[in-house]
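Would you kindly consider the sequence and fold I have copied below?
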Amino acid sequence: MKPKEMLAYVVTSMAIVSMIFILSGSDMTGRAASLPPEEINAQIKVVTSPAKVIPPDSAVVVYLEGTSINATAIRRNASMGIGEFFRLSGRVPEIREGELPALGYYGMGYTGTGEYVINVSDFPIDRRLPPGNYTLRTAVSYKGSVIASMEKGIVV
């Protein structure tokens, strides 16, 4: 191939490649495409045991944390009183005197054998997440100490 023919071939090829980049937009440059957020949904469960009591002024706290594919850090949380949680579940746990020695609690509290479930949408938390990896963590806390917790990974 002669140099002039080679030059014409290279120029034509570069023009086609440039056109592909222009038509493709940002996806061809390696930047993430802007995708709409998705609203997550999950069941939040609290389990009672006859061996323990949950103090009536405890709270259920939901944490939603992670990083979007665009490297945006997400940290959200919301809470509600344990009594409100049980009310929303539609079930009423047994209330009796008991103790939670690890936290120094002695007195009336929620106990018995039961599972109480509500939806994360019952909490005042923004559930819309852009694509990424997140952790949904739920904790029952009393005066800043965690009585029980659970976490689950979420990929949007």
The longest helix spans residues 3-24. Residues 4-33 have pLDDT under 50 and may be disordered. Strands lie at 38-39, 43-48, 59-68, 73-81, 94-100, 105-111, 114-119, 128-129, 132-142, 145-155.
